[in-house]
């Protein structure tokens, strides 16, 4: 099959055992770490959020011109992280790229949990989160519906569709694996797998339908991925605020999202490989090579669009744009943050030009972490910063997050990690049947055509 | 008429396909049960198949598109609230909403079609062998008369089948 | 009239930008900046009329004062050659308001009086309207603001006391507009100029603020709006605000009220 895949030495049986081993076999240390992250999430996220709901949004650092703080930054950041997962699956499925098989499940899982955080952050940033359901078009006696020209309603539809589609996509790939593992598993896992696989056997007709359905899903999800982050960018770009109101925002956000998403997948795979050495058989240097190239190309695209964002602002030469740029590029500490962002997202990924670096420890851990930091900073420099310098100078006000906002951000990150760790213990993180496909179809006399 | 089926587990796909050809020539129905998709190989042997799923997907997508327009336009008219100097029926944002609902309905109907076409969820017990979950390739020969069963088993053995099970229907 | 032309008319209505052919009233405020001395009486009057909470020094320092109207002060030059300019800014009740398109739940919309109204009960607090507002006129209830025991008697019974987590903004004293319209209806007459005076205009000692209906060609605002001194705040953003400022500007860009 694909070059760089030396899996033909493995048998189907090995695959089953390895993947079921990832689910069941891990030391007490794993559960302790998972529990610690869960407890951290409860303390750092649930408690401050309850406090914020009870006392009011005033516990955050928001003020009158800066109504969107790091909650929205996190929202956009996690939408970005959610992007690579389904894109890797969908885009590489349509092009029949073989190396997607070993990593697609992990990436889709990341999408799923990132989207959970996205939804959470929408609720967290709201003034009255208990009324969140008013943003859905549901029939009520009030006969009052949602405003269909609001960019936030686009958001509800786009993110709702994206969440639904990615859950369906994730579940869909899981069905054959769960059916296969239900014969190996025991206890509650067996019952769960049997229930969730709905009696899948793997008949010829079923596989055929599954393949066709995957094709349709991929065809749907690719435009969806682009549209979701465009819609998120329009939350900002449809306003009049200098620094928000830019037509370049849709491609800029989509590129940035993919950059952070691919960096996230890279980091996730590296950590998983350390936690489960058996994964090194499936996720090889070849994967790092390919994803590293993706990160490099996306970083170059992102750099171009960042330049364009600044230059179009300068070229417009309205006093508001100039003030906004002065604040963003020439006022400490934002100047330093901007330089750090450029370093993380433009300069650092250039090391991926060297093939050796893509597979090195530096390329696997350090670069993706810093790219993620840089992408978070990019959103920070756009969202609260533009609001600090709106039109009337009397209302210019700086913003700094308070401990509640920082704690909720960290807590949700911990929640993401602990949920991911729990997911790994319940569902196969490597697509069983796809890896088997990678090994090849066993033939006695004929060669595989 | 007591019709019985026989499930044979093969180690290799090519021998399975040869056996399947024999069964087809003898007029028995068969199903291939495998741990990995064999669409390519099967189509190569037995010709292309009909893709019913696209009708579900197309139906869902078209419905979603219409749903988006009906929802956004209909609900705006139900309760008229002018906002921002924009028309009540604003076409451009509605296009965006219907874009998303097209995808949403398309995905959900594809899922529904998948369940219908795969005959899932399964309530009764269907013939299966645990080895198929790992590395066996099953050939389920159906619609065999009772007196022909030993013949079928002989044919399957000839082609190198491992375990052979009779399944009472 | 055939059903076809009826449908066509209805569709035309629904496709018309802003929906209304003509507002019942186009309430407008004219602020004569050449008369404004920046005393802040309008701000106090607004606090008293509209049940605005007083949030204290610390919260004000964080720019969280809940003033629906503010006097913006701009200082030009170095001491001793200093010139201070004032401009009272409140919700401009834009006809093409950016905030209205942004709200996902219709908590803010345009009514037939040309007012940009806020529905407190419907607000979920997404902050989008405030972010989109170029005038920073919107204020948020960061906490539950309660008044001490005897002070709660000061609440204006005509105005809602807003709860935590919702957005609010200047209303042109919509409770007074409603009361005046009711009175006019009881007396079986049309609303006439001078029936409605918002608290800020009422409190202005120099009479710099004039409120009225721009649809009425005889009203004071209609006449003042024709003044060559007129301008509207950030007019280049095409928001079509309902607050008109008057200021004499010399060729060199300096105002003349001080000279």
Number of separate domains of chain C = 1
Q: Residue share in helices of chain C?
A: 10-25%
**Radius of gyration of chain A in whole Å, from Cα?**
23 Å
> Which structural class matches the secondary elements of chain C?
alpha+beta
Total discrete domains of chain A: 1
Tally of strands of chain C: 10
Tally of individual helices of chain C? 8
Biggest pleated sheet of chain A: none
Low-confidence stretches of chain A: 1-6
What is the helix fraction of residues of chain A, given as a range?
over 70%
Query: Into which percentage range does the β-strand content of chain C fall?
Result: 15-25%
CATH architecture of chain C: 2-Layer Sandwich
State Rg of chain C.
20 Å
Q: Order of strands across the widest beta sheet of chain C?
A: 8-1-10-9
Largest interface: A-B, 62 and 66 residues
* SSE sequence of chain A, one letter per element: HHHHHHHHHHHHHHH
Task: Give the integer mean of the pLDDT values of chain C.
Answer: 89
Can you characterise this structure?
The complex is a heterotrimer of chains A (449), B (169) and C (259). Chain A has helices at residues 12-24, 28-55, 70-94, 100-125, 151-181, 187-197, 204-237, 249-275, 285-316, 319-330, 334-347, 355-359, 361-388, 403-426, 432-439. Chain A has 449 residues and is an all-alpha fold. Chain A has one domain (12-137, 144-435). The radius of gyration of chain A is 23 Å and the shape is globular. Mean pLDDT of chain A is 88; it is low at 1-6. Chain B has 169 residues and is an alpha+beta fold. The model of chain B has no long low-confidence stretch (mean pLDDT 84). Chain B has helices at 13-25, 39-46, 53-78, 91-117, 149-158; strands spanning 3-10, 29-33, 137-145, 164-167. Chain B is rod-shaped and about 80 Å long. In chain B, 50% of the residues lie in helices and 15% in strands. Chain B folds into two domains: 3-49 and 121-167, 2-Layer Sandwich (Alpha-Beta Plaits); 53-117, no CATH class. Chain B contains five helices and four strands. By secondary structure, chain C is α+β, with helices and mostly antiparallel strands. Chain C is built from eight helices and ten strands. Chain C has helices spanning 3-15, 41-49, 57-61, 98-102, 128-132, 174-186, 199-203, 220-224; strands at residues 27-32, 70-76, 83-89, 108-110, 116-118, 139-140, 167-168, 209-213, 230-231, 243-246. Chain C has a four-stranded mixed beta sheet. The termini of chain C are far apart. At the A-B interface, helix 1, helix 5, helix 7 and helix 15 of A face helix 1, strand 2, helix 2, helix 3 and helix 4 of B.
């Amino acid at each position: 099959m694909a070059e760089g895949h030396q899996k033909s030495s493995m048998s189907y049986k090995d695959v089953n055992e390895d993947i079921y081993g990832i689910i069941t076999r891990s030391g007490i240390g794993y559960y302790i770490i998972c529990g610690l992250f869960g407890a951290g999430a409860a303390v750092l996220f649930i408690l401050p959020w309850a406090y914020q709901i009870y006392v009011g949004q005033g516990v955050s650092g928001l003020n009158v011109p800066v109504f969107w703080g790091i909650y929205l930054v996190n929202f956009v950041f996690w939408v970005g992280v959610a992007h690579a997962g389904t894109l890797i699956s969908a885009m590489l499925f349509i092009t029949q790229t073989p190396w997607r098989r070993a990593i697609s499940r992990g990436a889709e899982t990341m999408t799923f949990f990132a989207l959970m955080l996205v939804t959470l952050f929408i609720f967290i940033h709201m003034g009255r989160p208990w009324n969140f359901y008013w943003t859905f078009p549901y029939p009520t006696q009030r006969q009052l519906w949602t405003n269909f020209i609001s960019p936030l309603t686009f958001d509800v539809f786009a993110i709702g569709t994206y969440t639904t589609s990615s859950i369906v996509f994730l579940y869909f790939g899981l069905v054959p694996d769960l059916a296969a593992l239900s014969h190996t598993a025991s206890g509650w896992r067996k019952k769960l797998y049997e229930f969730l696989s709905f009696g899948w056997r793997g008949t010829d007709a079923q596989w055929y339908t599954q393949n066709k359905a995957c094709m349709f899903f991929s065809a749907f999800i690719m435009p969806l991925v682009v549209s979701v982050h465009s819609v998120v960018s329009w939350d900002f770009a449809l306003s009049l605020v200098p620094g928000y109101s830019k037509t370049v925002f849709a491609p800029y956000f989509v590129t940035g999202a993919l950059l952070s998403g691919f960096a996230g997948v890279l980091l996730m795979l590296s950590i998983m490989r350390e936690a489960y050495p058996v994964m090194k058989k499936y996720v090889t240097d070849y994967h790092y090579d390919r994803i590293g190239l993706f990160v490099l190309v996306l970083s170059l695209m992102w750099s171009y669009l960042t330049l364009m964002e600044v230059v179009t602002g300068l070229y417009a030469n309205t006093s508001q744009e100039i003030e906004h740029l002065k604040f963003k590029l020439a006022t400490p500490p934002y100047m330093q943050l901007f330089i750090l962002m450029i370093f993380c997202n433009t300069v650092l990924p250039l090391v991926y030009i060297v093939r050796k670096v893509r597979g090195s420890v530096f390329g696997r851990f350090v670069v993706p972490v810093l790219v993620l930091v840089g992408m978070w900073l990019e959103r920070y420099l756009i969202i609260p910063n533009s609001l600090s310098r709106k039109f009337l100078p009397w209302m210019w006000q700086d913003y700094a997050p308070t401990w509640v906002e920082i704690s909720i951000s960290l807590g949700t990150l911990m929640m993401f990690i602990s949920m991911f760790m729990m997911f790994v213990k319940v569902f196969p993180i490597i697509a069983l049947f796809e890896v088997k496909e990678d090994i090849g179809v066993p033939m006695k006399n004929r060669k595989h055509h | 008429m007591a019709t019985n089926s026989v499930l044979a587990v093969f180690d290799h796909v090519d021998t399975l396909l040869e056996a399947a050809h024999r069964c087809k020539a003898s007029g028995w129905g068969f199903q291939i049960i495998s741990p990995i998709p064999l669409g390519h190989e099967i189509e190569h042997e037995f010709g292309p198949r009909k893709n019913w799923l696209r009708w579900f997907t197309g139906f869902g997508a078209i419905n979603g598109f219409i749903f988006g327009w009906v929802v956004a336009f209909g609900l705006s008219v139900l309760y008229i609230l002018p906002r921002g100097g924009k028309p009540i029926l604003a076409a451009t944002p509605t296009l965006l909403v219907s874009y998303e609902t097209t995808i949403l309905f398309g995905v959900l109907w594809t899922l529904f079609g998948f369940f219908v076409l795969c005959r899932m969820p399964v309530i009764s017990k269907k013939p299966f062998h645990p080895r198929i979950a790992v590395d066996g390739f099953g050939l389920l020969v159906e619609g065999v008369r009772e007196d022909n069963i030993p013949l079928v088993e002989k044919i399957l053995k000839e082609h190198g089948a491992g375990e052979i099970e009779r399944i009472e229907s | 009239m055939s059903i076809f032309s009826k449908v066509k008319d209805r569709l035309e209505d629904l496709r018309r930008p802003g929906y209304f052919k003509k507002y019942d009233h186009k309430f407008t405020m004219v602020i004569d900046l050449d008369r404004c001395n920046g005393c802040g009486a309008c701000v106090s009057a607004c606090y008293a009329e509209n049940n605005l909470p007083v949030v204290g020094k610390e919260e004000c320092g964080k720019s969280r004062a809940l003033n629906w109207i503010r006097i913006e002060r701009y200082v030009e030059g170095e001491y001793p050659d200093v010139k201070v300019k004032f401009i009272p800014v409140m919700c401009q009740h834009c006809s093409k308001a950016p905030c209205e398109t942004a709200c996902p739940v219709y908590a803010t919309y345009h009514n037939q009086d040309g007012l940009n109204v806020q529905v407190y009960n419907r607000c979920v607090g997404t902050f989008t309207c405030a972010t989109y507002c170029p005038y920073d006129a919107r204020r948020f209830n960061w906490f539950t603001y309660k008044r001490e025991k005897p002070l709660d008697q000061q609440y204006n019974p005509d105005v809602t006391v807003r709860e935590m987590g919702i957005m609010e903004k200047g209303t042109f004293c919509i409770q007074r507009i409603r009361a005046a319209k009711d009175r006019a209806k009881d007396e079986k007459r049309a609303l006439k100029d001078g029936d409605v005076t918002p608290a800020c205009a009422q409190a202005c000692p120099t009479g710099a603020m004039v409120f009225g209906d721009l649809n009425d060609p005889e009203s004071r605002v209609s006449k003042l709006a024709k003044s060559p001194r007129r301008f509207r705040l950030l007019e280049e953003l095409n928001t079509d605000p309902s607050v008109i400022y008057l200021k004499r500007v010399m060729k060199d860009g300096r105002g003349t009220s001080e000279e």
